[in-house]
């Protein structure tokens, strides 16, 4: 096994482990109010009408008021939380599968890159995520996953260049 193949395999496995950790974190309690109500990121996506989620939505309205976009809390929708969360879940599951099943191929890091970018960018630009207890952990995991997958993309570009040179 060449050194580059070993690096690709290690980085793919590391991406898969980090994506699994990120997905597990999305099912743990993320927002907690003063009333003791709590909700995870995935709970807010799949079950937004439960009592705890209604309390958490009121908490968002109290804490956020007007944000930098000039949007009032009453105009905010729970739907803005759905896109990053489902992106992380969907691309994360695909990434775990391909990064483990095809760990010798660098191109499958594209799934990890999508997962990491959905997490890092989504959690940074959508204000309700900043109210979560594990916000920095999620952003850090997204950033590390993105960085590792960029390493895989560099190896893929090198492979493509070698393939064209024959």
Number of beta strands: 2
Q: Can you write the helix and strand succession as a string?
A: HEEHHHHHH
Helix residue percentage: over 70%
Q: Tell me the fraction of residues in β-strands, as a range.
A: under 5%
Write down the Rg.
Answer: 18 Å
* Main sheet record: 2 strands, antiparallel
Category by helix and strand content: mainly alpha
Give a topology summary:
Layout: H1 3-26, E1 31-32, E2 38-39, H2 41-46, H3 51-64, H4 79-101, H5 109-125, H6 127-130, H7 135-165
Antiparallel strand pairs: 1-2
Helix pairs in contact: 1-4, 1-5, 1-7, 4-5, 5-7
Please characterize this protein's 3D structure.
It is a single chain. The protein has a two-stranded antiparallel ribbon with strand order 1-2. Helix content is 72%, strand content 2%. It has helices at 3-26, 41-46, 51-64, 79-101, 109-125, 127-130, 135-165; strands at 31-32, 38-39. The chain has 166 residues and is mainly alpha-helical. The chain has seven helices and two strands, in the order αββαααααα.
């Amino acid at each position: 096994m060449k050194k580059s193949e070993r690096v690709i395999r290690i980085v793919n496995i590391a991406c898969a482990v980090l994506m699994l950790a990120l997905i597990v974190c999305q099912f743990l309690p993320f927002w907690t109010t003063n009333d003791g109500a709590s909700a995870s990121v995935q709970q807010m996506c799949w079950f937004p009408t439960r009592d705890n989620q209604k309390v958490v939505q009121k908490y968002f309205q109290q804490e956020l008021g007007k944000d930098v976009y000039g949007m009032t809390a009453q105009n905010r929708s729970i739907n803005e939380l759905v896109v990053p969360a489902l992106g992380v879940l969907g691309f994360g599951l695909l990434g775990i599968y391909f990064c483990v099943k095809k760990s010798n191929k660098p191109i499958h890091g594209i799934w990890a890159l999508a997962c990491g970018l959905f997490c890092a960018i989504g959690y940074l630009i959508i204000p309700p995520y900043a109210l979560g207890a594990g916000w920095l952990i999620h952003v850090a995991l997204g950033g590390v996953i993105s960085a590792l997958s960029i390493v895989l993309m560099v190896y893929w570009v090198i492979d493509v260049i070698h393939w064209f040179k024959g």
